[in-house]
Write a structure and sequence with these properties.
about 160 residues; alpha+beta; Alpha-Beta Plaits; 4 helices; 8 strands; globular; binds 7,8-dihydro-7,7-dimethyl-6-hydroxypterin; 2-amino-4-hydroxy-6-hydroxymethyldihydropteridine diphosphokinase activity; transferase
Length: about 160
């Protein structure tokens, strides 16, 4: 079993509901246990002209291989109506493998740790709710250092439901 963190995002078709359905689907993955879910956060899209996003992070313990997990995540995205019309376009659901145990993965379909982790407050702050305070990434960076370099700006906690 390895501890895996999944970044979740949606900006279409009731984003908070999309994330709740995604969590439900993650909880039913084979060889996998859902360990925790962060709070939900809203923020403007990094690209202008798109609706605001709701983001959260889920923690899993899984014995799935990374590419098998990636296939399963893409099946969940597709099951929730994701259409790949344009790269970086608005989406009903985005599920990204942010961290996978202490692995460094550099394959055409999958880079872990996620490439943009350090720039994305909407991933780092929810991750920090779930991860141990002294979390060190496979590449040696600490979560504490990434948080210190990425201010909590433009993030709003999603109102409790
Ligand atoms: N912006 C925010 N706030 N949240 C996201 O998940 C997100 N995802 C994207 C782009 C379009 C880069 N912007 C985002 O893919």
């Amino acid at each position: 079993m390895e501890r895996i963190y999944i970044g979740m995002g949606s900006n279409l078709a009731d984003p908070a509901e999309q994330l709740r359905s995604a969590v439900e689907a993650l909880a039913h993955l084979p060889q996998t246990e859902l360990v925790g879910v962060s709070g939900f956060y809203q923020s403007d899209s990094l690209l202008p002209g798109q609706p605001r996003y709701t983001n959260a992070v889920a923690a899993l313990d899984s014995s799935l291989a990374p590419l098998d997990l990636l296939d399963a995540l893409q099946a969940i995205e597709n099951g929730q109506g994701r259409e790949r019309l344009e790269r970086w376009g608005p989406r009903t659901l985005d599920l990204d493998i942010v961290l996978f145990g202490d692995r460094l993965i550099d394959e055409p379909r999958l880079k872990v740790p996620h490439y943009h982790l350090q720039e994305r407050a909407f991933v780092l702050y929810p991750l920090a709710e779930l991860a141990p305070v002294d979390l060190r990434l496979a590449d040696g960076r600490t979560l504490t250092a990434l948080l210190a370099a990425c201010p909590f700006v433009g993030l709003e906690r999603h109102p409790p439901i």
